[in-house]
Specification:
Layout: H1 9-14, H2 20-31, H3 34-50, H4 70-83, H5 89-103, H6 132-139, E1 143-144, E2 146-147, E3 152-160, E4 163-171, E5 177-185, E6 190-198, E7 212-218, E8 225-232, E9 237-242
Antiparallel strand pairs: 1-3, 2-9, 3-4, 4-7, 5-6, 5-8, 8-9
Helix pairs in contact: 4-5
Length: 243
């Protein structure tokens, strides 16, 4: 092992920056740490947005070189954090996300004039406080979906400069399952907005009454989306929501 497991490793793990030994150690740590599991689910949207980020096109801060990219920045930040017990890695990652919101180009799905924003997700309740996805859902105007075999749920959606942001509520599902929220464009193009695992106890069922709440994002503009689907990894459709 290169170092002991730290709670701050959750950011590095979400972005795939841990080496093999540290990754295995942190996955073992997750089994007994609900705080890290919750934080990891909140960072899932950040990781999906940062995945595949191309070169920086326009950065004002003089401390960053134009040819650098966000992933390289995070790797350099992680190396520095190892010398200080990685105590500030999450701050570094938040700074990188701020750079994304300030004018980077994400893959080929955003134009240079767009202002990207990051979507995050988490499942279930955390004590008596609502998480960000649940809060966004509660404050919005849900579109109820059509479910299969007792599945219920809906979406709150909003148009963004980078595409479409959505918060999902899902009930009536038992695990174990792996699921994805997908946007289906009017052209038929399908984009994965977010993914998650359903534990055996499930969500919104007897014995596990809390529904699942998740954030997700699609590069497809809301005006170009026909509907949304929640599907399992086996291709079974659980929920359909019209845009």
């Amino acid at each position: 092992m290169t170092s002991r497991v730290e709670h701050t490793d959750v950011g590095a793990y979400a972005l795939g920056l841990l080496d093999e030994d540290d990754r295995l150690a942190f996955e073992a740590h997750l089994l007994g740490c609900s705080s890290c599991r919750y934080e990891l689910s909140d960072l899932a949207g950040v990781a999906s947005v940062l995945h595949g980020i191309g070169p920086v096109e326009d950065l004002d801060p003089p401390s960053l070189e134009p040819e650098g990219d966000v992933v390289d920045l995070l790797r350099r930040k992680k190396a520095a954090d190892r010398r200080t017990r990685r105590g500030t890695f999450v701050i570094g990652m938040a700074a990188a996300v701020t750079l994304v919101a300030g004018g980077l180009t994400i893959g080929t799905q955003l134009s240079a004039g767009d202002t990207p924003q990051v979507a995050q997700g988490h499942g279930g309740h955390m004590g008596t406080n609502m998480g960000p996805a649940e809060q966004f859902y509660a404050d919005g105007r849900p579109i109820e979906g059509t479910g299969a075999e007792g599945v219920t749920g809906g979406l709150v959606v909003e148009s963004k400069g980078w595409g479409t942001h959505a918060a999902l509520k899902l009930s009536g599902v038992k695990g174990p399952l792996e699921c994805e929220l997908i946007s289906v464009g009017k052209s038929g193009e399908r984009r994965v907005m977010t993914g998650w695992s359903v534990p055996p106890a499930g969500y919104g069922v007897p014995g596990s009454p809390d529904p699942l709440y998740m954030h997700g994002g699609s590069a497809t503009p809301l005006r170009d989306i026909d509907h949304f689907e929640v599907v399992t990894s086996a291709g079974r459709k659980l929920l359909t929501i019209k845009a």
